[in-house]
């Protein structure tokens, strides 16, 4: 794909918006047809479990039943590691929990599903929208963020009726996941964050200097800083969706390939966004792409890529 050099980072050589296609034979001809039939059969076999899960939605059985259904359809394989905790000691107490904020890299419409699986409590998915020199943060429910991702995860000129979130305190009863890049990539790097440092400080809450309650505010802010972590998630490269894709095509592909996720939860990082971005890239800042490869650049790339593919 040398013709897309304008969207390749000059320092790393990484082109974060170019999709990684599956083997051609997998989706064409007889093998592609049989893959579609297999997906339908898996859906039929899993449907009774899904139905029971929906009937038991407000019970503890809901979560495990959903996992069983997803395992049947996608051959789901999830590996979770927690930084600073030995693997034999890792347990539910180290999983994402209510009142904490997690910045997550963004690669596919299945990301919300894996984050829901590992959460200890109700979840809130937040995606930033660029606003000139700052950003706005919007909360999307599970189906909204899946549809947003399948559609290319770019805001464009379309109107969205998502809930705007101005403070982390609004989501104190949720496990809060923030996709700070604002759009998906192919997972080869971490895009520049749409969220600015100033916005992030205000979102987490800055202590009110000179206020009679400043000590209390400072304590709560410091506590919230201590609970900000990064979660790096990695899916099969051909299941990343830097560009829009049809739901049926994507789900059939995922079912045919099988889904493998690796999830790494960092230690507390505080509020420094640059530090968090490096953590999402495995601690190697030299793998980060430049600031020019942002959401605006991706929208231009999508147009160019579509025109070249015709």
UniProtKB/TrEMBL annotation:
Domain of life: Eukaryota
Gene Ontology MF: a single term: acyltransferase activity
Lineage of source species: Eukaryota, Fungi, Dikarya, Ascomycota, Saccharomycotina
GO BP annotation list: phospholipid metabolic process
Name of the protein this chain belongs to: KLTH0F14454p
Keyword Transmembrane helix found: yes
Keywords annotated in UniProt: Membrane, Transmembrane, Transmembrane helix
SUPFAM superfamilies: Glycerol-3-phosphate (1)-acyltransferase
One Pfam family of this chain: Acyltransferase
Naturally occurring in which organism (per UniProt): Lachancea thermotolerans (strain ATCC 56472 / CBS 6340 / NRRL Y-8284)
Domain annotation Phospholipid/glycerol acyltransferase: ranges: 89-193
Keyword field contains Lyase: no
Residue intervals passing through the bilayer: 33-56
């Amino acid at each position: 794909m040398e013709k897309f050099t304008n969207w390749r980072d000059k320092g790393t050589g990484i082109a974060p918006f170019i999709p990684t296609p599956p083997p051609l034979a997998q989706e064409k001809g007889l093998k592609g047809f049989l893959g579609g039939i297999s997906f339908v059969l898996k859906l039929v076999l899993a449907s009774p479990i899904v139905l029971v899960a929906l009937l038991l939605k407000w019970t503890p059985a809901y979560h495990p039943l959903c996992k069983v259904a997803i395992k049947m359809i996608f051959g789901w394989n999830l590996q979770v590691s927690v930084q600073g905790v030995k693997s034999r000691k890792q347990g539910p107490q180290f999983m994402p929990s209510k009142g904490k904020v997690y910045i997550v890299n963004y690669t596919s419409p299945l990301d919300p599903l894996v984050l829901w699986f590992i959460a200890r409590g109700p979840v809130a998915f937040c995606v930033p929208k660029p606003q000139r020199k700052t950003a706005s943060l919007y909360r999307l429910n599970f189906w909204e963020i899946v549809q947003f991702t399948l559609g290319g995860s770019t805001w464009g000129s379309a109107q969205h009726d998502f809930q705007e979130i101005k403070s982390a305190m609004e989501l104190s009863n949720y496990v809060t996941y923030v996709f700070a890049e604002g759009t998906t990539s192919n997972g080869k790097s971490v895009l520049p964050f749409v969220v600015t440092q100033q916005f992030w400080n205000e979102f987490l809450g800055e202590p009110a200097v000179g206020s009679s309650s400043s000590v209390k505010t400072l304590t709560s802010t410091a506590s919230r800083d201590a609970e900000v972590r990064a979660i790096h998630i990695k899916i099969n490269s051909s299941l990343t969706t830097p560009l829009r894709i049809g739901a049926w095509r994507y789900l059939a592909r995922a079912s045919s390939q099988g889904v493998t996720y690796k999830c790494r939860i960092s230690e507390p990082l505080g509020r420094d966004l640059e530090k968090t971005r490096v953590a999402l890239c495995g601690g190697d800042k030299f793998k980060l792409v430049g600031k020019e490869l942002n959401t605006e650049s991706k929208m231009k790339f999508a147009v160019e890529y579509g025109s070249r593919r015709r």
